Amino acid sequence: MDYIERSSDIKKPEDINKYLMSSYEKFKRSLSKNDLDEYCYSQIEQNLKELIIRGEDKDNKYIYPSIILKAVVILYNNKSYLKVIDICKNCIASLEFWDPVIRQTLYFYYAMSIARNRGSNIHEILYKQISGEYILEKFQADFIRGFYYKLSGRYDDAVKQLSSCLEINPNYFRARRELVETYVMLDEFDLALDLAARNYYKFHDNIFNIYQYFNCLIREKTPDLEKIK
User: What's the CA gap between 4 and 11, in Å, rounded?
Assistant: First the structure.
């Protein structure tokens, strides 16, 4: 079920959808009566995530930060970026009371959703502080800024920000992947190849890494035919 939730390309069969909806409606009735004795923890969590995703979670005492984060991740992976932004905006006022790791992760998805929607306030969002400290680490802010520039067609600026991110955190896979794409956009295939190779050899079963590596191999100035084989 978690895999299905994470994939926007997989559609559940109609009979399963009907069963899940029936179970969800039953849970809401039990929740309104404050009677959840028949439910185990995983069932409660699953239904509470559904409440959040459907926007039916107003002032519910059972919902806590980690469940909100899980719902946000599902929505983000399903490309529901505006919903992610709305949910995160409603959490901003209480973020100072959240566990720092959960807070930072939720805020990362918030900023990424704004970047994907080309939000003009992205730079202001990245500098948000709580108790005098930035919510995001600098490498994360550099990455999101670079990602935003890439989506906006500002490829040279994207290279600068993504490179800055990797100087701070050389093992940050997301930044290497986006930098490969950016170099490809600039037709700098030789520069992209080294990064693509590192991603491929570290995660060689990832279809996206395979595609990026092969794409760079066949487009470099002097292709290595042995590697292509």
Answer: 8
d(CA 44, CA 184): 45
Q: For residue 185, what are its two tokens?
A: 């956009």
Confidence of residue 18 (pLDDT cuts 50, 70, 90): confident
Map out the domains of the chain with their CATH numbers. 154-229 (1.25.40.10)
Biggest alpha carbon–alpha carbon distance for the chain: 70
In order, the DSSP letters of 67-104 are: HHHHHHHHHHHTT-HHHHHHHHHHHGGGGGGS-HHHHH
Phi, psi of 38 (to 5 degrees): -80, -5
In eight-state DSSP terms, residue 134 is E
pTM: 0.83
Query: What is the identity of the amino acid at 4?
Result: I
* 130 three-state secondary structure: strand
SS3 133: strand
Please answer whether residues 111 and 76 qualify as being in contact, where contact means their C-beta atoms are separated by less than 8 angstroms.
no
Residue 169, helix vs strand vs coil: coil
H/E run at residue 129: strand 129-130
Residue 55's region, left for phi above 0, alpha for psi from -120 to 50, else beta, is left
| DSSP symbol at 12 | P
| pLDDT above 90 coverage of the chain, percent | 51
Give the pLDDT score at 3. Answer: 42
Q: 133 - beta bridge partners?
A: 130
3 state SS of 36: coil
